[in-house]
Structure formats: structure tokens, C-alpha cells
Amino acid sequence: MSKILVVEDEPMVAEVVERYLRRDGHDVTIVFDGQSAVEQFARERADLVILDLMLPRLDGSAVCRKIRATSDVPIIMLTARGDERDRLQGLELGADDYVTKPFSPREVAARVRAVLRRTTPVEGRERMLEFDRIQIDGARRSVTIEGRPVALTVREFDILYHLASNPSHVFSRDHIVASLWGDDFVGDASTVTVHVRRLREKIEADPARPRHVRTVWGVGYCFEP
Ligand code: CA
Fold first, then answer.
1. Residue 50 shares a structural domain with residue 151
2. pLDDT for residue 121
3. Is 30 in the same domain as 102?
4. Are residues 95 and 136 in the same domain?
5. What is the CATH number of the domain that holds 144?
6. How far does residue 97's CA lie from ligand 1's centre (Å)?
7. Ligand 1 center to 88 CA (angstroms)
8. pLDDT value at position 120?
9. Helix (H, G, I), strand (E, B) or coil at 140
10. Which domain covers residue 172, as residue numbers?
């Protein structure tokens, strides 16, 4: 059972999402505005946050930024339909995934399962990847750079782990999406670009000239130790 914080100002939407998540056995808390979301999150830890972008008192992007300042909790954004700018903005702020409105509650529940599955590693399957400068612990989902721990979001970690599992091998964006997001993903490969940019800001000495997560133009990305 996971604790899920749902931040949504439309009571009907919040209730139907809550019902589906409870059916999956989760413990759900609902708040109806951004300020309450920040206060609730500070008061009680959550395993995952579902966050509407358009909220009274404090909007979803501000809430996301505040949560990210202290936590790597998985965040799934609810955004307006087809508005790519909103959706990419959510990812830029550190959300792990998004669902566009109007959505089916079944889709939200599936997305929650997918994200939680990623944060609960299967024993023995995930390896420890050790390089000169970077250590990636697949079981603990932790990363250290020159001995210093670096906090990555679920997606950032998944991308790094996937690339580093096969150093110097070039993976296309579509391959990364298919391997890591799987059938639950309905967006496009441009979201990978956003996650990679944020990942580089955290692990590269010079994010503008990445040494580890390299772009291979027209093909995709590869990891160089
Ligand atoms: Ca709203």
C-alpha cells in the first residue's frame, strides 16, 4: 500500500481518481488547492503525488517546484489536453510523468502503478554500476558522483541506469520510451529530451558539454563512463 496525495480542485475529478486508487489498495489524501498541497506534503510524507497544473491559491508548477526543493517523490501532473507547452513545463519542473485532461481514471491508476513499479526495485535484478566518477546502485536507486550523493527523479534515474547498463551503446529516444515507459505511455519522445537535460544538470560537470550522457545526433543517447 502506498500513500498518495491527490491535488485537484475539481471535487468530481478528485473523487473518481481517489476511488480508483483505493481500489488498487492505496491510501489516498485529497487537497483542493496548491497552498494546502504544500502544507500537507510538509506534514505527512507521500509515496507519490498527483498534481493538477491549474489550481487556486498556488498553481501546480509552483507546488511542483516547492516539493522538488525538498523531495524526489514521484509526481504525476494533470495537464490540459494537447497543450504541449504545459506538459513539457511540468517535466521541466521535475514531474515524472503527466496525464492530459480529460483522462480516464483507469489511465491515471495505470500510470500510478507504472511509476510505483519503477520505484520498487525487484530484488537481484538491478545491478550496481560502478565507473570512475559515477556509481549507480540499481537496488537502492541511488547515484553518487565523486562520492557525493545526487538526487534524481524516477525518470532521470531510469534513463541513466538504462544507458549506463550498456556503456557506449547508442539508444534512440523511441527505444528509451518503449523500454522505460512501456505501454502506459501515450506521449512522444520529446519528453525524453527534457528528462535528459535535467539529468545532465545534475550529473555533468558542464551540462552544456556533457561527458557522460552524450547526444548522438540523429540517433539518440549513449553513456560514456
Ligand atoms: Ca484545476
1. no
2. 54
3. yes
4. no
5. 1.10.10.10
6. 17
7. 17
8. 62
9. coil
10. 128-223
